[in-house]
Amino acid sequence: MNEPESVEILTDPQIEQLHELYQGEWWSKGRSLEDTRDAVRNSSLVFGFVEPLTGRLIGFCRVLTDFTFRATVYDVIVAPEFRGQGLGQRIMKSVLAHPRLQRVGSITLACTKLMTRFYERFGFSTMPDDVVWMRRPCDAA
Ligand SMILES: CC(C)(COP(=O)(O)OP(=O)(O)OC[C@H]1O[C@@H](n2cnc3c(N)ncnc32)[C@H](O)[C@@H]1OP(=O)(O)O)[C@@H](O)C(=O)NCCC(=O)NCCS
Questions:
Q1: pTM here?
Q2: Catalytic residue among 6, 119, 133, 139
């Protein structure tokens, strides 16, 4: 395979391919195509990796940030048949090297305990024991 190329704007077919990738993961299954399009449009930064010959989206993540104090990485994902070849690491390196994130105070992400080793190699560490992520479903009473 040729080296995947990086893009920061997704075409309509690439958004459809992202939507398909989302259907394969427990944390993104069921997201609609329309919501996927909106989420991509409204993200601060988008990192797409595409096959050069076909333009097919095979790697992705997005960042929400104020470009100053905080940034959060979401939806790191590689197409199943391209996993284990270094693309996930390339995605993370691209995020951390992005010029607009260089002055951000701290970058956070949420992941399963199993995945912590993957992110530790990029300098991420778990929160101090007395700090936890909290969330509230938007339809909560
Ligand atoms: C996580 C993911 C992006 C990694 O992409 P990738 O291209 O396969 O990663 P790379 O080839 O660059 O690196 C592979 C490393 O990640 C580790 N890794 C990959 N998936 C893992 C998992 N589910 N749990 C633990 N470690 C994992 C591998 O053990 C490997 O480590 P090694 O280099 O020590 O062997 C990819 O597996 C994926 O898309 N997973 C499904 C989506 C997901 O769960 N994303 C994470 C959200 S927090």
A1: 0.95
A2: 119
Distance (Å) from CA 33 to ligand 1 centroid = 25
Q: How far apart are CA 134 and CA 140, in angstroms?
A: 14
Tokens at 130, concatenated:
């007395």
Largest pairwise CA distance in the chain: 50
How many Cβ atoms sit within 10 Å of the Cβ of residue 65?
18
Q: What is the mean pLDDT of the chain?
A: 96
What is d(CA 98, CA 110) in angstroms, rounded to the nearest whole number? Answer: 20
H or E element: which one contains 105? none
Ligand 1 site, residue 88, Cβ cutoff 6 A = yes
Model pLDDT for residues 39-92, shown as the tens digit of each residue: 999 999 999 999 999 999 999 999 999 999 999 999 999 999 999 999 999 999
Q: In testing the pocket of ligand 1, which one of 75, 78, 94 has its CB within 8 Å of the most ligand atoms?
A: 78
CB within 8 Å of 30: residues ≥ 6 apart: 23
